[in-house]
Specification:
The chain is built from five helices and eleven strands; from the N terminus they run αβαβαβαββαββββββ. It is α/β, with parallel strands linked by helices. Helix 3 packs parallel to helix 4. The protein is globular.
């Protein structure tokens, strides 16, 4: 790969809760000439975005606090020009799952570094002509239904707030911080009292 044309001055943000994967990813990408920043969850990723926008984001999906589904829904709304690569064990295959707001997908342990480098190079070359609209305007998010509450991230102020009165299907909640109305849809378990992840769609 021609690192002079593919990696010069490009900044990549890695968001993953596994320290070893962040460290390995950082070393591999820095060896390719990229500037690499890391965060351990979606909250950390958003904090990093506020300091300096990356040219590309690599994110896991299942993470504590703010998971990758929530994080990517906010990124797609606020920063649609930033290309996203998801690396996760949540799905198999190389095609981007319909519920994942990303430009490319790799299953953890199911690809070679060279394949990732090639995809990064292709995506950063699209930056000047990248359309402002991304994938569909709904993103799947995993939220922990602990003690009858779920957490919803406002795509306007980027803050997460608890929601207690939810039902399966369409819902809408007012952000505790900025008062924006955040529509979302619960499409997972019928029971909302279990301490298990439920799958929801948050409209962005």
């Amino acid at each position: 790969m021609d690192t002079d044309t593919c990696t010069f001055r490009y900044r990549i943000l890695i968001v993953d809760d596994e320290p070893s994967l962040r460290q390995v990813g950082k070393l591999l990408l820095e060896a390719q000439g990229y500037e690499v920043h890391c965060a351990s969850d979606g909250f950390g990723g958003l904090a990093t975005l506020k300091k300096a926008l990356p040219d590309l984001i690599i994110s896991d999906l299942r993470m504590p606090n703010m998971n990758g589904f929530e994080f990517l829904s906010v990124v797609r709304r606020r920063f649609p020009m930033i290309p996203i690569i998801v690396i996760s064990g949540e799905f198999s295959g190389l095609s981007v799952p319909e519920s994942v707001l990303a430009d490319a997908f790799f299953p953890k342990g199911g690809f070679k570094p060279e394949e990732l480098f090639e995809k990064i190079c292709a995506l950063v070359h699209e930056l000047p002509t990248r359309p402002k609209s991304g994938k569909p305007n709904q993103a799947a998010v995993w939220v922990t239904n602990d003690r009858g509450t779920i957490a919803v991230t406002c795509s306007e102020c980027l803050r997460t707030f608890p929601v207690t009165e939810v039902t399966k299907g369409p819902n809408e909640a007012e952000c505790d911080f900025c008062s924006s109305m955040v529509p979302f849809e619960i499409i997972g378990d019928d029971s909302l009292t279990q301490i298990d992840p439920v799958l929801a769609l948050v409209a962005t």
